[in-house]
Amino acid sequence: MLKLYNSLYKKISEFKPLGDTVKMYSCGPTVYSYHHIGNMRAYIFMDIIRRVLKYNGYKIEGVLNITDVGHMTSDADEGEDKMQVASKRENKTPWEIAKYYEDFFFTQTKKLNIDIPEHVVRATETIDEIINFVKVLVEKGYGYETSKGIYFSIEKFTEYGALSGVSLEDKLAGARIEVDKEKKHPADFALWVKAPKEHIMQWQSPWGMGYPGWHIECSAMGKKFLGDAIDIHTGGIDHLTVHHENEIAQSNALEGKQVVKRWMHVDFLQVDGGKMSKSLGNIFTVDDLEKRGYNPLAFRYFCLNAHYSKKQNFTFDSLSSAQTSMERLYELTFSHKNQTGLNNLKEYEEQFLEAINYDLNIPLALSVLWNMLKETNKSNEVYKLALKFDTVLGLDLSKYQPKVHEIIDEVRLLAEKRWQAKKEKDFKTADEMRENISKLGYEILDGKENYQIVKK
Ligand code: AMP
Ligand code: ZN
């Protein structure tokens, strides 16, 4: 039985999909700059949920959005559109910026074996649906117009704050002094922004030219592809208090029911025990790690060693040990290939399933794999089961080609044949074997009772 945490109820519960296919929405990247390893932790988390669902036999219909307009520099709708900022910074159109960073994003996810959802959806391709969504919210009395745009009235939505536990009073107390006087509550947020002339991305709407707010994009894209009942919604922990609270308000207000059944959040990746920030110069991309000689999958392996609900601290030392361990894991897995030993593997298979199915306990699942590889007799059955486990872990265990080891195995085989031939006084075969061994770069030193293989 698969059990998963739900941030909404703050407990682990049995996962029961609403229909035949699991509907899953994942907040995707804003494509205005290079995506770093912290962002990648969030997508590895999404990927692990998908892989665990598949391991359990579920079909999935997933959406990953691409935010290519409307995400302001502050999550509370203040500041400028991040796309606009990047456009000025790089002297390119926002469309060029979006294309460039979206392509970059997918090069990174590919290197990390991240399983991409069935639908990748851009906000700029969902404008009609967004406008309709806002229209209905206004008709239902949840949205209201000001000189700046259309705002969502959080006081109208009585369950506002259920996810984060932050009350409207708390929001009021935390509000800045210079709040927009036209807003009914300081934490009301923009559904649609009336665009100033200099905002490059803008569309015709019932409220004049403008562009969508960030939060409505996710609600509208989710509705378009997954409908009004979504099994799982994922995102980073930073999105819980504002972005996801706002998504819940919009979607539930529109449908008149609870749309998302389960919210799941991944905690932050820190670097050297602190926040990643430009000023500290500690923001790294997967490409940066590669340039320093690391296998991108070593970063994936590193992530698999911490539970998603805990903060994880990145250092280059820990990445190096992850890489060493992963290489050892490759070798150990390979050492079972084509071997014929006998084992009973039922227990390992059960333990692995139990680990992944208890709220994605991947660190424990990894240790089950390690134990199995170490404790059993060398056997192809173990190899095959390791590859099955790897459908969840995504470490490419099957692709490993240990060139040196393969040679050594072959040399051993030839040396043994040679020794037998010699004992049977078949010197022709023995000489042939010695020749072949020599071609592979090894030499045989004969003793009275045995022989030694040495590298030339
Ligand atoms: P953004 O493109 O800024 O919207 O972020 C994309 C995703 O990465 C979001 O789900 C964020 O919550 C997540 N994220 C950002 N920084 C980190 C971090 N340091 N660790 C883990 N997740 C992060
Ligand atoms: Zn979102």
The run of helices and strands is EEEHEHHEHEEHEEHEHEEHHEHHHHHHEE
Question: Which outline best applies?
Answer: elongated
Spatial sequence of strands, sheet with the most strands: 5-4-3-10-11
What is the CATH superfamily classification of the largest domain? Answer: HUPs
Helicity level: 40-55%
Ligands in the model, by name, code or SMILES, are:
adenosine monophosphate, zinc ion
**How many strand segments?**
15
User: Structural class given helices, strands, pairing?
Assistant: alpha/beta
Protein model, in words:
This protein is α/β, with parallel strands linked by helices and 456 residues long. It has 3 domains: 3-266, HUPs (Rossmann fold, 3-Layer(aba) Sandwich); 315-399, Anticodon-binding domain of a subclass of class I aminoacyl-tRNA synthetases (Four Helix Bundle (Hemerythrin (Met), subunit A)), CATH 1.20.120; 404-455, no CATH class. The protein has 15 helices and 15 strands. It has helices spanning 37-55, 82-90, 94-111, 127-139, 168-174, 214-226, 240-255, 286-291, 296-304, 316-334, 346-357, 362-375, 380-393, 403-423, 427-439, and strands at residues 3-6, 11-14, 21-26, 59-66, 119-122, 143-145, 149-152, 189-194, 210-212, 230-236, 260-266, 269-271, 312-314, 442-446, 451-455. The strands form 5 sheets. The protein has a 5-stranded parallel sheet, sandwiched between helices. The chain has a 4-stranded antiparallel sheet with strand order 6-7-8-9. The chain is elongated, with a radius of gyration of 28 Å. The model has no long low-confidence stretch (mean pLDDT 93). The structure holds adenosine monophosphate (AMP) and zinc ion (ZN).
